[in-house]
Amino acid sequence: REAFFHHAVIRCYWSGHSERCRYYSEKCMNLFGQGGQPTAYVAKFFFGLNAIDLLRKKRHASKSKVGLRKAIAAMKDAAANSEWNFMNKLRLLEAEQQHLTRHHWRAIDLYDASIQSAKKSGFIHEQGLACEKAGFYFKNLD
Question: Looking at the whole model, is its pTM more than 0.85?
Answer without folding.
Answer: yes
